[in-house]
Design a protein that fits this description.
This protein is of the alpha/beta class. The protein has a single domain, classed as Vaccinia Virus protein VP39 (Rossmann fold, 3-Layer(aba) Sandwich), CATH 3.40.50.150. The chain has 8 helices and 9 strands. Strands 3-2-1-6-7-9-8 form a 7-stranded mixed sheet, sandwiched between helices. Strand 6, helix 7 and strand 7 form a beta-alpha-beta unit.
């Protein structure tokens, strides 16, 4: 009898879960087709694989999501419309360019600015960035995402960011990190400054209290020898990237 009841529940839940995912996926496709995206952005779709990436990370359209370091807003233009009706999108750290998008496009008008007191800065003579007042000012978020930005910070800055993400997420919340791959244990040089050792990233994020849930090979590129700077013509737009999914668990 117990087995029968369990199977019945699973059968009843299956279509609902599939429907939820289908709805989010449809909204992502609609956002990708939006006229607020310029040609240079749409051309990167086949490389960045946003539908598959967000599916792997577990995005749903009713989530409270924080995007860190949105840059020019490539992912903001996707996440904003997807979350506008039933969820929330907050952007934090280095948001000046993305803020202009929010001001100019109605489809992004519900995107919220977080961590308004935070300061991303470089100490004199230091190549990478530090964080001052890193608190995101968001509570019980379902998901925090950062795309190709983890490498930008000093060890101190990364620790501050990871701790701020921990504080912002609800228990069981997801922390998704995508970045350009560096050879394991390779020291800094002029060619790898925008790459990061994924093993080191995992250890640092686990040290903040997170559990590694999964990784994806979506952005694995066998022909990237991890030798050249990511902006060089031979690898630009085709770098090997790690895609990591963490969960907030009790320390």
């Amino acid at each position: 009898m117990k087995l029968f009841v369990l199977l019945t529940i699973c059968l009843l839940m299956g279509p609902t879960l599939a429907s939820d995912f289908e709805t989010t996926g449809d909204k992502i496709k609609t956002a990708l087709a939006s006229d607020i995206r310029v040609e240079a952005e749409t051309q990167r779709d086949r490389n960045r694989l946003p539908i598959q990436t967000l599916e792997f990370l577990g995005l749903r359209d009713d989530m409270k999501v924080v995007e860190l370091l949105p840059g020019g807003g490539w992912y903001t233009k996707v996440l904003g419309p997807v979350l506008a009706e039933d969820g929330e999108l907050h952007i934090a750290y280095g948001t000046s360019r993305a803020q202009k998008l929010i001001d100019n496009y109605d489809t992004l008008s519900k995107v919220k600015l977080a961590a308004q007191n935070a300061e991303v800065y470089r100490k004199e003579g230091v190549r990478f960035y530090s964080l001052k007042n890193p608190n995101l000012g968001v509570k019980k978020a379902d998901m925090v995402l950062t795309f190709r930005n983890y490498h930008n910070f000093t060890e101190e800055g990364r620790k501050a960011m990871n701790n701020a993400v921990w504080d912002a997420l609800k228990m069981g919340g997801i922390y998704g990190v995508v970045d350009h791959t560096r050879r394991h244990m390779e020291g800094d040089n002029d060619e790898n400054r925008r790459r990061f050792d994924p093993v080191k990233a995992i250890k640092e994020i686990q040290a903040a209290g997170f559990e590694l849930v999964d990784y994806s090979t979506l952005h694995y590129r066998a022909d990237d020898e991890l030798e050249y700077e990511v902006g060089r013509r031979s690898v630009t737009g085709n770098t090997d990237r790690f895609t990591l999914k963490f969960k907030k668990v009790k320390k």
